[in-house]
Amino acid sequence: MSAVYGSCPADIRAGIGPSIAAHHYEVGSEVVQRVRETFGSAAESLLPSQNGSTYFDLWAANQLLLEQSGVGQIEISGLCTACHPEDWYSHRGERGQTGRFGALIALNGSQHG
C-alpha cells in the first residue's frame, strides 16, 4: 500500500479477524524453528508451552509483524475459531472436516487522505 498508493503505515488501520487462538494451535519442532528464525528474540513470547507441548500465538505474531511494518492502529477480534465452531470453520479445531469461509476487502479509490 505504501509503494502503490503512497500510504503512510502509521495511518493504516488493521484488523486481525477470527482465527485459531494460541491455546488450540499446538505446533511441532519445525514450526518452532521457523518462528525462532523469523522473529528472533521475540519468538519465545509467541511460543507458549504447556504440559510439554508448544503452541503458536498467531494473533500476537501478526500484530508484531504489523507493528514492525509501522502500522499504527491494530485491532484483534479475539474470536477463536476452534472455540466457536458454531460460528466459524476451523481446520485444526475440526480436524480437517470443515467448510471454508472467505473475506472481501475493498479499497475505495475515491477517498484520498
Q: Uncertain segments of ≥5 residues (pLDDT<50)?
A: none
Give the overall silhouette: globular
- According to CATH, what is the class? Alpha Beta
CATH homologous superfamily heading: CNF1/YfiH-like putative cysteine hydrolases
Mean pLDDT: 85
Reported for the largest beta sheet, the result is: 3 strands, antiparallel
Sheet with the most strands: spatial strand order: 2-4-3
Features:
single chain; 113 residues; alpha+beta; CNF1/YfiH-like putative cysteine hydrolases; 3-stranded antiparallel sheet; 5 strands; 27% helix; globular
Question: How would you characterize the overall build of this protein?
Answer:
The protein has a single domain, classed as CNF1/YfiH-like putative cysteine hydrolases. It is 27% helix and 13% strand.
Please outline what is shown here:
The chain is an alpha+beta fold. The protein is built from four helices and five strands; from the N terminus they run αββααββαβ.
Topology, please?
Elements lengths: L1 H4 L7 E4 L9 E2 L1 H11 L3 H4 L2 E2 L2 E3 L2 H11 L4 E4 L37
Parallel strand pairs: 1-5
Antiparallel strand pairs: 2-4, 3-4
